[in-house]
Design goal:
single chain, about 850 residues, alpha+beta, four-stranded antiparallel sheet, about 40% helix, zinc-finger, Vps41/Vps8
Amino acid sequence: MAEVEQGRKQSEEFTDESEEEDSEEEPKLKYERLSNGVTEILQKDAASCMTVHDKFLALGTHFGKVFLLDIQGNVTQKFEISSVKINQISLDESGEHVGICSEDGKVQVFGLYTREGFHENFDCPIKVVALHPQFTRSNYKQFVTGGNKLLLYERNWLNRWKMSVLHEGEGSITNIQWRANLIAWANNVGVKIYDIGTKQRITNVLRDNVSLRPDMYPCSLCWKNNSTLIVGWGTSIKICVVKERNATEMRDLPSRYVEIVSAFETEFFISGLAPLADQLVTLYFVKENSDQMDEEFRARPRLDIIQPLPETCEEISSDALTVRNFQENECRDYRLEHSEGESLFYIISPKDIVVAKERDQDDHIDWLLEKKKYEEALMAAEISFKNIKRHDVQKIGMAYINHLVEKGDYDSAARKCQKVLGKNMDLWENEVYRFKTIGQLKAISQYLPRGDLRLRPAIYEMILHEFLKTDYEGFATLIREWPGELYNNMAIVQTVSDHLKRDPTNRTLLTTLAELYTYDQRYDRALEIYLRLRHKDVYQLIHKHNLFSSIEDKIVLLMDFDKEKAVDMLLDNEDKLSTDRVVEELADRPELLHVYLHKLFKRDHHKGQKYHERQIGLYAEYDRPNLLPFLRDSTHCPLEKALEICQQRNFVEETVFLLSRMGNCRRALQMIMEELEDVDKAIEFAKEQDDAELWEDLISYSIDKPPFITGLLNNIGTHVDPILLIHRIKEGMEIPNLRDSLVKILHDYNLQILLREGCKKILVADSLSLLQKMHRTQTRGVRVDEENICESCHAAILPSDMAKPFSVMVFHCRHMFHKECLPSSGSIPGVQFCNICSAKKRRPGHGILEIKQ
């Protein structure tokens, strides 16, 4: 059982007598001793009762005095009521009227501001008094007192007090709680509830443990709301709900009844109860003979928060309280009062008053910091930054950073700096110097501000120098990631140059130096380094900063590095680097020149036409597979020069192409037959040329070569009559696969016949279909109306007076004429032709329509 000692103004005695145990479970409440005027009062007197109002406190003592206190415990008013113990103080909801009863039988009810009210002396001790909650209102001037009887006092219209007995005969009344129209009281037998509105007693809740003396272990009553009463007596707790009875069940029964929704036993004796949302705050008296406690800890009261269940309860928190003189107190000496508005709980004992309150967000953060849960504390502060009063988010963050540094988790500490330090430049610089002191500048480097918010350049330079000493790669990474404006670029360039003097071939430093030159806009220096290193970013640098004028004399270097990228770049920027300039630079490197001119030719066959003659030799030397396609596509290539080069190098295929292009097909065919000895290529060549004389030469050359004859038989069937070849074959010549070749010829012939017949059928069918369509069209009627005109005189084709006789000629071509506008018939008697269609040399339609009337 953890002992909780907290509070902002706790007395030294309260803290010294407590032994706090570390616990991972956070307390639910915090405590502080009510001091100021209370301390002086309790030094001379002892507290007997106290009542809590939202605005003030009312404290009664054993010497018959009543003190009105503010929330801090300062005395605001003092009343000398009696010379003996004050038993009960009652306040109405407004806090304007007070009821007081004492051990000598005195009862006083008066206004705090008027002093007018009720004063009465009874012949027996009055243990309790309770005012109507709305006592201020004139029609609710009611209060009850409890001694041997429960008496109700009401002021009538004559301004006199009328007394009536509500209950008697069951021993002394020890507690009364009035809520709305319901009065609950406890006597030696049990707890009763009375409805002041219907003047009916609703229920009787019997006491469980009758062996306990009611005066030593008094009943605790507490209203949770207008219909829920909490009863605590001995070690038993019951939660009673007042409900409306169904009208059909009324008969002679009260209109309300009570249902006990929860009843359970506790481990210790109950001294007080108070609601906390759906939970309960219970003040326990721990009896000395309890086996669970050691000698020193035996009689301290406990304040627990429990969650009621139907037949048991669940403990939420438990705090043992060290109040003054706790060793001398009994169960009846403790009281628990609460303020509903602020969730404040007052533990009253004869010589001490302790205030318990719910922990706020500041207290939660305090506990997290105490347990070194800095990350949770920081998160809680950020979420509730508007509600916290004693903490600052940045200070918590700094504490978290300090904690991480102490643990040696420098990377996490540096990462948190971004979030915690924000825009505070002084804090940033202090942290940087602290990381420098502990030798961890690298850890914080990647988290430094680098946007609109920046530190002094010296800070960044200090970190760069640190990296240069030990980590070239890390230095290069920072240069790439940090904007060049963060530091003095020239100073860093000089430092890198000094390091390169000791290690001139270090690629990392050279690359970084090139990037620094780029930031400083000294692109020519950066370009030299990139080319020297053959760095992939060289082309991006050229494009980005338009350095084409700087690379005119470096084209060979670029080509040596990456031919493809270099050529693409040069061709894409011909307006900045002319073809002539590139060719001039590559003149001494023909293999590179060929790559450039070849890509230029692929893009546009005409752009580099003046270099086509040079390209012939380049293709022949470095790229023969592309020579023939070049010769075919180029229209600017000198054929004689090309033929000379190809003949010198014995390029047969290229020579054949050039000879055929120059018109010397027979020589080309001869080279194919003699040098290539490829009959298929020869046949293909003859097909391309489609020359009868060429076929004759091919047959003549092949007639004494059986393999060639086989090839011809297999391929010439659609170009030359095979009979001509067969007739010229010598008798007795053995020809490979002759039978198959002849079968193929016959098969090809049959296929040609079938194709011709098929085409003929299609032609006849199409002709018939079109003829039928034309016949249907020409036999269709033609509409003639007043909108039609004569194609000769352009007058309306129909007369305005249809009664008169007229004659109209309509041709199948849909042209119309007045008969008198047509010339006489021509060479064919009785046949008339359309003048328009005859003029256009169209064949006349058959059948002429003549309309007469």
